[in-house]
């Protein structure tokens, strides 16, 4: 029998819950983990899109993939999707806190305090609540893990998306602290994501002209990211291949060094 160098990257027997998985980066992650053998539940604010994406992934990979509505800022909905996932799959081994969003506001004096609060609720507190709701199941899993979709804007000056970058920076702190607090029980890691061209940029109010500028970034690879770039890194961190990795941040941003994401 020949040696299979990719065996540890398989996700057979893993039950995944991913937030914000109906489109863009989240859908890419869901597809990759499903393709590696996992059962996947997509939790998304858009229930119809979650169901459509899940059905398409299931057809393509041949593995169980489902979609369900969930507003991750609502604790009751978090508990409902966690219970539904555990009931459908017989447990949860893998949580991907992928959901996140932030609009552009280049004038700091024009940012209302409520925007900071709402960004923190969506990008940080939701990940904590989801992690705690899944924890009883993750602790029982053989390779229990939590992986967060972080942002490069949390590690550099986020000139144009200050509330978002600030909330994602808090997520980084929470990740490493939870990794230590859940010592030997559940692995916790994050990916700092750079510029990945998706429809989400238009939703955030970024003009087509600015999107074209972002499509030619000043990074070491000379191209923006693709959803599969993030999905491949996510597969590593979620799989048994990363069984000795916890409390870590992986930078997946093309070797980016640009500190002003959009410019003036």
UniProtKB/TrEMBL annotation:
<dbReference type="InterPro" id="IPR020904">
    <property type="entry name" value="Sc_DH/Rdtase_CS"/>
</dbReference>
<dbReference type="GO" id="GO:0016491">
    <property type="term" value="F:oxidoreductase activity"/>
</dbReference>
<comment type="similarity">
    <text>Belongs to the short-chain dehydrogenases/reductases (SDR) family.</text>
</comment>
<dbReference type="InterPro" id="IPR036291">
    <property type="entry name" value="NAD(P)-bd_dom_sf"/>
</dbReference>
<keyword id="KW-0560">Oxidoreductase</keyword>
<dbReference type="Pfam" id="PF13561">
    <property type="entry name" value="adh_short_C2"/>
</dbReference>
<protein>
    <submittedName>
        <fullName>SDR family oxidoreductase</fullName>
    </submittedName>
</protein>
<dbReference type="InterPro" id="IPR002347">
    <property type="entry name" value="SDR_fam"/>
</dbReference>
